[in-house]
Amino acid sequence: MTIVIHTIQGVRRVMNQMRTAGKTIGYVPTMGYLHEGHLALVEQAKREADIVIMSIFVNPAQFGPNEDFDEYPRDLDRDAALAKEHKVDYIFAPTVEEMYPTEQTIHIIPGAIAKKMCGASRPTHFDGVLKVILKLFNIVQPDYAYFGLKDAQQVAIIETFVHDFNIDVAIRRVSIVREEDGLAKSSRNVNLTEEERQKAPKIYEILREGRARLARGTRLEEVQAYIEEALVKETGGVVDYVSILHYPSLTEPRLGEEMIIACAVQFSKTRLIDNVIVGEDM
Questions:
Q1: Which family does it belong to (predicted)?
Q2: Could you tell me the residue ranges of all domains in the chain?
């Protein structure tokens, strides 16, 4: 049975009961419209924790002007049915008014790690991510929190935030879940046109080729130029960025250490991100 809770007070009461009973809590934060990527987080949480709680909240604080907050898909009934099928114990589904009852006057500034990749074109995005994550961690107080590596910059920033501020939660990374044709699972995929959906898997193909070129010794600058040109030619989208960086520090890459090749491509109604880690199986 999956219980849906809409209030902060309600979640705190139930989670306190679970902790008092000696249960470990695994937490899966989402913005809803669940897909296999979210459910992979749930499956890992179930393996490690006694109780699994998922939040479903489309956070306005992380959307900038003219972004797709209003377009973001929402269907709580559908999500609750999927969560029940996968044996999620609790869903926390607050309203915006419940999460932000008053104007927020204190801000969290992530710093240099948030000024590249997605942060370069979305300057307030990760401020909003950390704002809601801190609130959610304080509300749920989980033992473990699960994040997908599709949002690799977000994972790196949250790991750094938790470490730097001594937040008592263990962050668990979960690999990207993909469609059969390689497209990273995303709630935003439903906003692609039929033609865009056919071209979008090229993003992953191009990133993998870039990784293979790095493995063959091609210079970083040449690999980045290849990816940028191929994305324009093969997807028909507008390339927001292509970055090759050390992971998870998101600093200048160091050969022989873990690196990430990441990109964002803007289609007509939605922006897709994807990445590959250098050193993973080719």
A1: Belongs to the pantothenate synthetase family.
A2: 3-174, 187-275
Rounded Cα distance between 274 and 40, Å, is 17
| Average of per-residue pLDDT across 170-178 | 95
Which value, to the nearest 10 degrees, does the dihedral of the CA atoms of residues 136, 140, 146, 149 take? 0
33 is in an annotated binding site: yes
What is the assigned CATH class of domain 3-174? alpha beta
Phi and psi of 259, rounded to 5°?
Answer: -130, 160
pLDDT over 70 percentage in the chain:
99
Say if CB 207 and CB 274 are below 8 A apart.
yes
Q: Which CATH architecture has domain 187-275?
A: 2-Layer Sandwich (3.30)
Would you please indicate which residues are annotated as catalytic (active-site) residues?
38
Q: Check the annotation: does 151 bind a ligand.
A: yes
Q: What is the pLDDT of residues 179-214, one digit of tens each?
A: 999 999 988 899 999 999 999 999 999 999 999 999
Give the Cα separation of 274 and 204 in Å (integer).
7
User: Which pTM does this prediction carry?
Assistant: 0.89
Strand intervals (E) in the chain: 3-5, 25-30, 51-56, 90-92, 144-148, 170-174, 238-246, 259-266, 271-278
Give the integer Cα–Cα distance in Å for 41 and 245. 25
Domains 3-174 and 187-275 share a fold: no
